[in-house]
Amino acid sequence: MFYAYNFLGDNIGFKVGDLVTRNSHGNDIIFKIIEISNDTCELKGVNVRLLVDCNINDLAKYNNEDIEHEENFLKRIDEPVDLDRDDYFYLPGKILHIDSDSDYLSRCLDYYDKSNVWSMGINEEEKNVPENIVNWLNKYKPNIVVITGHDAYYKRKGALNDISAYKNSKYFVGAISKAREYETSHEKLVIIAGGCSSCYEELIKAGANFASSPKRVNIHALDPAVIAVKMSLSDINKNIDLKSILDKTKYGKEGMGGIITKGCMYVGYPR
Fold first, then answer.
1. Which candidate, 2, 3, 54, 1, places its Cα nearest to that of 27?
2. pTM of whole model > 0.85?
3. 3-state DSSP assignment of residue 96
4. How much is the average pLDDT of 198-221?
5. In angstroms, rounded to a whole number, what is the distance separating the alpha carbons of residues 49 and 149?
6. Three-state SS for 89?
7. Which whole-number Å values give the CA distances from 61 to 9, 28, 67, in the listed order?
8. Sign (positive/negative) of CA torsion 217, 201, 192, 80?
């Protein structure tokens, strides 16, 4: 068990795996400590797709308060899905979810399962996705592909429209481009991509139907999955209600944006 010590050598009780918040940011986000090196901790958002470094003296132990309004959000997206109705039968769109973070991927797969939607998850680093995505698309033949992980914008490296100023946006763009070469139609293959503060405009230009982050804000771990489920369960013959789908996500149009397209669910008769 790894304990952190302050410069006086006193045990201050932080260890890898602890849930903490940052005093300097108003204790607004819950993190898990994933590494401790001297007086620096590497933190990963529990609910938000965010990786940060932090001085250990800035940390406070999480006190189990719902500071992120997580319970309200989960209730809002946890709608029962009943496909056993009337005389019709329903074939939801299939989802392939590629994520560099195994914890977030697991949460998304659980959400797909609760929504009665077929899904396949692949845990892979962002930089490796462009070279492998076509093979995965050929293997699983999804209607929807979600490409997520971690990202960040570094102001010191360039302007907002400079993709080289982002941690992983170039890899998301590369993966989207390869997927769009595989299937050029935005309606035959729905692409949802990005992480926290990703270069939204470049992801959309590359061919994504939905992407993060229009206002370069953090996104919730489940935001891409929320959109994927809504697309999977929307009629293939009807245009989606874009605004209402974005409103289902944690941070709405500031965190995710996209284009109007048709859904991915076939409706048949009789069952």
1. 54
2. yes
3. strand
4. 97
5. 7
6. strand
7. 19, 12, 13
8. positive
Q: Where in the chain is the domain with CATH 2.30.30?
A: 3-61
User: Cβ(179)–Cβ(133) under 8 Å?
Assistant: yes
Q: Is the pLDDT of residue 113 over 90?
A: yes
Which pLDDT band holds residue 212 (cuts at 50, 70, 90)?
very high
For the chain, give the mean pLDDT: 91
Contact call for residues 41 and 49 (beta carbons, < 8 A): no
Q: How far is CA 3 from the centre of its chain?
A: 31
Retrieve residue 136's tokens: 């995965």
Structural domain 70-268, CATH architecture:
3-Layer(aba) Sandwich (3.40)
Distance CA 162, CA 154 (A): 10
Nearest CA to 199 out of 144, 248, 257 is that of: 257
With CA atoms as reference, report the closest residue to 147 among 139, 138, 136: 136
pLDDT at 3 over 50: no
* Amino acid 147: pLDDT: 98
Q: Which CATH class is domain 3-61?
A: mainly beta
Tokens of 256: 């995710």
Q: What pLDDT score was predicted for residue 9?
A: 36
- Positions of CATH 3.40.50.2300 in the chain: 70-268
